[in-house]
Design a protein that fits this description.
By secondary structure, this protein is mostly helical. 33% of the residues are buried. This is Exportin-1/Importin-beta-like domain-containing protein. Its main location: cytoplasm. Belongs to the exportin family. Residues 108-238 form the Exportin-1/Importin-beta-like domain.
């Protein structure tokens, strides 16, 4: 570069420094920035603009210009690299590398990372042929103490980009990169090991340790361990995993990878695995040897637990032989109950669960570790009793509180041990009796609440839940005794003035509510044992419990937790009373009438409990023998109105109650339909009004969606009782609702679901329903699907078409009485052929789109149609569709567009071919090959000779088909 050139580059640099500073000035106008952006874009299009960029990097300190120059270089490397001369490429590469080496202490870290990324991007395409010194550059940096971190950044990014590159790299090139990279791994690992051995001599040893182990951690996700994890390297790494920091987490991540993989064990492999197993337990010993483990971060603890889990699951035999007395389980036991973080504790419990699962068929181990497992139960029981300190109010996405999760996970472990040693169920009952007797004593003498903290009632909640989980291990007599005790306490606990309503400290009130609700909930799981117990029934215990439950549910002063528990128990108590309703009619009527006549609104109950009460009330109303049908219809009509006080705006509870109360007898469904018919008529009227409404469109759509959901659920429930006239009005309303198709996708989907139900359930005599549904689908919906305007409705539309073919087959193929007896499969006379053709064309079209869910849905549909109605064998299908369908499905296999469904596609092709194998092999396949593009004639000849031999056995057919489509695909690529 001569002096004149330097002046030009210097002036250019200063000019762009000023422009970029102004560009990023907050006071610059958008118009000015737009003009500058045009200049910047023109700069990037200039020939050899990269030379100016290199000059900028070497001479400028303006960070705006430095990043601008790097971005221009990135654009050139990604888009214009192949157009540059080899000499220019080499010059640019060396310039970038030299900038990294010379100025890595001057540039910000993000800029150095950017330059490293540029060189790795070049190497992805050019190394080793056109970038032969790439690895030499990395090695040069690694062996220089001042530049070792640069070399490690290079190596880490190379590993990431070479082994898991973006999809823009061809498969062949990906393979070349990995093979070439592997050749240099031994030398690189030797350098990395030396760096680790000598890092303690440097001032930034922690930084170097972390960077080296990060590289190893990444590489060991893909490297073959058999060749590269040597005993020497292992002994270099092991000491670094004991001190909790980022380096140790990297080390343990490596060991976790090694232990998790499966590979043939050589002598070295066995040594390394056994060393890692023992090393894992030394880590655990280190952690539990410290009085407090709060010094250990959660991240470190999690990775230790992960390794521990892998070691115990995969290397049980080694551990069982090495630790003769089960010391490893003793360590696990201590480690488990040193966990302060609940998530870590749960992961330890998961390890125990995996142990019990693995030991189910190892009786010698079950007996050998009996003492340890029983110790585990004792420790878990102690842990359970700390439940009171855990949040029991905030509910997660699954509707569980932290406390519920905590109890369930601990009780699951006790259940697992009980499966191995049923004897542990007995002391659980003994403990429970101690706790329950304390509670009974307080129930009988409430003044003892003053010393409540000293009682053992505190443990009654987890003990009762544990007892219930082990119910399968008790004899029937014990089960009945426990259930009777629960029943008595449930009645006493809420019958008079409940303990939790007495003036006691808030913490005591909370515990008393938990105890009583747990007893009620537990009773719901044991109650079935008393349903057939004569003595229990004679003592009128069921009536007493029923009265207590209903009274409690009516009492607005009761806590929500008690209401919810009563709501859970109510159905199990009521069901036997409804079966023998004549004995209980007056009691049921007396106690449930406030719910039926609306004098109690139930607004004080949560949604689930409210539903339970209303379902119980409705079942009584429908079962009650004392009313004539007309009166029952009127009463039911009024009751249903009370469930939807806001009319069409409040239909969810009404439908939930009706659906949850089923199944119903036919006579009962008739009564329900008569009672609900006014609501159905009002719903259809609303949909009609929707077409002429001038009010807010969004408000109308939202209301109409609720209405359509109601109509859908009611039709599914009551379709066989609905009058044909009502269904006809409903369908005509759908036909007239043109604006719905463009106004609401969800509304359209609901409408299609209702139409599908109508087609499925309507009688053979109502052919007009089928005709209307087909007309609606073909004339109004299929054009929309073809234009892909409303993709979410496509699945529902195809389901409607499937229902038309599956359930209204005779609409197209009317059975001939004279032929059906002699030739049951030859009903080939077709009616409504144009509609049938259009439906199959639309289904066939779905096999050419990329939506795998629609493809799978329709492939399954045509297969079911063939199984039910012999679709592929119909002359009409064979003439017009057989070859088209097979062609489309073969193309899908050749193009591998739905690989996950290969077996299902092959089976469908086999079923189609099987209706005429001679046609398939002698005519269809040769014609298919003839029409396949990008295949030479000699390749077609080879495929005809090797892959088209007539085979009728399914397994061989599918294998040959897979080979054929693979050969076609390879031939097209060549």
């Amino acid at each position: 570069m001569n002096g004149q050139d330097v002046v030009v580059y210097e002036n250019e640099m200063k000019n762009y420094e000023m422009m970029l500073t102004e560009f990023y000035d907050v006071n610059s106008s958008n118009a000015v920035k737009l003009c500058m952006q045009e200049e910047f874009d023109k700069f990037g299009e200039r020939d050899k603009c990269w030379v100016q960029c290199c000059y900028n990097l070497e001479n400028s300190k303006n960070q705006y210009l430095l990043m601008f120059s790097l971005n221009i270089m990135e654009m050139i490397i990604n888009k214009k690299w192949e157009k540059m001369t080899f000499k220019s490429q080499e010059t640019l590469r060396e310039a970038i590398f030299n900038h990294i080496v010379m100025k890595h202490n001057e540039y910000p870290k993000y800029m150095i990372s950017k330059m490293i990324k540029l060189l790795v991007d070049i190497a992805r395409n050019d190394w080793p042929l056109r970038y032969p010194n790439f690895i030499d550059h990395i090695a040069q940096l690694l062996v220089n103490p001042d530049q070792v971190l640069l070399g490690l950044s290079f190596l880490l990014l190379s590993s990431e980009e070479f082994i898991s590159p973006k999809e823009d790299l061809l498969g062949k090139r990906k393979h070349e990169l990995k093979v070439n990279f592997l050749k240099h791994i031994p030398k690189l690992f030797e350098i990395l090991s030396d760096i680790l051995k000598n890092a303690h001599k440097t001032s930034n040893s922690d930084e170097i340790y972390e960077a080296v182990t990060k590289v190893f951690s990444d590489m060991f996700t893909w490297l073959p361990f058999e060749k590269h994890l040597t005993p020497d390297l292992l002994h270099v790494l092991m000491p670094l995993g004991k001190k909790e920091n980022a380096t140790s987490i990297n080390i343990l991540t490596i060991f976790n990878e090694v232990l998790s993989k499966s590979y043939t064990q050589t002598e070295d492999r066995y040594f390394i695995l056994s060393e890692l197993c023992l090393y894992t337990f030394r880590l655990v010993e280190n952690i539990i040897s410290v009085p407090e483990i709060s010094f250990v971060s959660e991240a470190y603890m999690i990775i230790v637990i992960e390794i521990l889990s892998v070691v115990i699951r995969k290397y049980w035999n080694y551990l069982d032989n090495h630790f003769n007395n089960g010391e490893f389980l003793e360590l696990l036991l201590q480690f488990t109950f040193r966990q302060d973080v609940l998530e870590c504790y749960y992961q330890c419990l998961d390890i125990w669960s995996s142990i019990f699962e693995a030991l189910s068929d190892r009786p010698e181990c079950i007996e050998k570790y009996r003492r340890l497992f029983l110790d585990l139960v004792e420790r878990v029981t102690q842990k359970i009793n700390t439940f009171g300190s855990i949040n029991d109010e905030t509910v997660d996405d699954d509707g569980q509180t932290e406390c519920q999760i905590f109890l369930n996970k601990n009780i699951e472990i006790i259940s697992n041990v009980a499966h191995l040693y049923p004897v542990i169920a007995v002391p659980v009952v003994d403990n429970w009796k101690v706790y329950i007797n304390d509670y009974i004593t307080i129930l009988n003498s409430p003044m003892l609440l003053e010393n409540f903290k000293d009682s053992k009632c505190m443990f009654l909640v987890p003990s009762t839940r544990t007892l219930t989980s082990l119910s399968g291990y008790y004899e029937d007599s014990m089960k009945i005794a426990i259930t009777k005790m629960l029943n008595d306490i449930a009645i006493q606990g809420v019958a008079t003035t409940p303990l939790y309503q007495l003036p006691v400290p808030q913490s005591t009130t909370k515990t008393l509510i938990q105890i009583q609700s747990e007893i009620l909930t537990a009773l719901s799981r044991w109650m079935h044992l008393l349903n057939n117990n004569k003595q229990f029934c004679m003592e009128q215990n069921r009536e007493k419990l029923f009265s207590v439950l209903v009274t409690s549910l009516q009492d607005t002063s009761q806590p929500t937790q008690i209401h919810d528990a009563c709501g859970v128990l109510l159905p199990t108590v009521t069901e036997p009373m409804l079966v023998h309703i004549s004995e209980y009619t007056s009691l049921l009527e007396q106690l449930l009438s406030p719910f039926l006549d609306g004098s109690i609104t139930l607004n004080h109950l949560n949604k689930k409990t409210r539903l339970s009460v209303r379902v119980t009330s409705l079942k009584f109303l429908l079962t009650c023998p004392s009313q004539e049908e007309e009166i029952k219809v009127l009463v039911l009509m009024n009751y249903l109105k009370s469930l939807a006080p806001s009319g069409l705006n409040d239909l969810k509870m009404l439908t939930d109650v009706l659906v949850s109360s089923g199944p119903y007898k036919m006579s009962t469904r008739r009564i329900i339909y008569r009672a609900v018919e006014p609501c159905l008529v009002e719903a259809v009227t609303h949909l009609k009004n929707f077409m002429v409404s001038e009010s807010s469109l969004n408000a109308q759509i939202e209301k109409s969606e609720r209405v359509m959901t109601f109509l859908s659920e009611m039709y599914e429930l009551l379709h066989d009782t609905m009058s044909p006239q009502f269904v006809q009005i409903l369908m005509q309303t759908f036909v007239d609702l043109d604006m719905i198709w463009s106004a609401s996708t969800s509304l359209t989907i609901k409408m299609l679901e209702v139409l599908s139900l109508i087609v499925k359930h309507s009688s053979k005599s109502n052919k007009e329903f089928t005709s209307v549904a087909i007309k609606l689908a073909l004339e109004k919906l299929i054009p929309l699907v073809a234009s892909n305007c409303y993709p979410p409705t496509v699945s529902a539309l195809y389901n409607l078409l499937y229902c038309v073919l599956m359930f209204k087959w005779r609409y197209f193929f009317p059975a001939s009485p004279s032929l059906s007896v002699l030739h049951p499969n030859n009903d080939n006379n077709i009616d409504n052929s144009e509609q049938f053709t259009t439906i199959l064309e639309v289904i066939g079209y779905s096999f050419m789109i990329n939506d795998i869910s629609i493809f799978s849905q329709n492939l399954k549909a045509i297969e079911e149609l063939h199984m039910q109605w012999n679709l592929y064998a119909k002359e009409y299908f064979k003439h017009y569709f057989l070859s088209k369908y097979m062609t489309v499905l073969l193309n899908v296999m050749v193009n591998k567009s739905h690989t996950i469904l290969s077996d299902e596609i092959s089976m469908a092709i086999y079923n189609m071919a099987s209706v005429d194998f001679d046609y398939f092999f002698s005519k269809f396949l040769p014609e298919y090959l003839k029409q396949t593009d990008n295949i030479r004639n000699d390749q077609r000849q080879f495929l005809r000779q090797k892959r088209m031999q007539p085979v009728k056995e399914l397994p061989t057919f599918m294998v040959n088909l897979a080979q054929l489509t693979n050969d076609i695909r390879c031939s097209k690529q060549i």
